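The protein record filed below.
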Amino acid sequence: MPAGVQQASKAETAVTGVVPARRQNIAFAWFAGSLASCGAVTFTNPFEVVKTRLQLQGELAKATPNMVKPYHNVAQAFWVIGRNEGLRGLQKGLGPGYMYQIMLNGTRLGLYEPAKNALYSVFTGSPSSGQKPIIPLNVAAGGMCGVAGAALGSPFFLVKTRMQSSSSFAAVGHQHHYKSSLDGLRQIWRQGGVRGLFRGMDAAMMRAGAGSSVQLATYDHFKSYISHKLSHRGLDGNSVYTHFLASMGTGFFVCLVMNPFDVVSTRMYNQKAAATGHGGALYKNPLQCFYKTVSTEGFFSLYKGFLAHYLRLGPHTILMFVFVEQIKALGARYF
């Protein structure tokens, strides 16, 4: 933005108290992303609980014919948790899940367009609007926003993962017993301070960076492609059906890329603290977690919980993008 325009914008804000449209748009996109993702996670959190337990089951144990597995598949795990722990068991971690969604998706959806415009301006000389999508730039913008959101939301993801793995009936992984989200944050703070709250953040940043770069870029591409090819059938950029179809395609590719990072992230967060109080007892960093997981359990252990992940991520992607597009449409109409 030219200096003269910036000065005029500041002067207008000072005199009228009205925030310039650019900042209003970023703030509204952040609000829309937060609200939409919280609405989506309300419905998909039970599959997150199932996915977490499937990923922790058999951690660093070589498969044997007589290995006892309390959770055999998604449907059976869903039934076991629901029957023995009820709806509260299936919705474990929903509170910190909301906070994580606000930090992650509010940030990445709110900053995606500005980040994309900045990259397009640097590499093409003009903003992204009106241009044909450039996939590498969209991927880079999505990845940067995902990393930033994951870093901000890391303490809430930590508590969420530990609450979801906890079970008095069929425990898997290390068990952390928190009475509530606040109790979890309090206990972690007492044991490890700020470092404890952000333990595993590097794994979460890798996870969110990989997932976000694919999700936002492929959604952009699918949405543009569908609206271009099927606009004559009413599937333009503002159609709910366009948003639904674009989200369906996006969910699969995100899950394919993200699942190995998701397994590592879950295990990094759920491990107990080392006896020294610094770091984790099982893994020092995400790369070591990748190595130990694959060398002990095989390559496909990185795809543990894939179906549960897709059943969580697919509907979550669909609901989130459909919600966010409708919230943006309402905002454009009434504000």
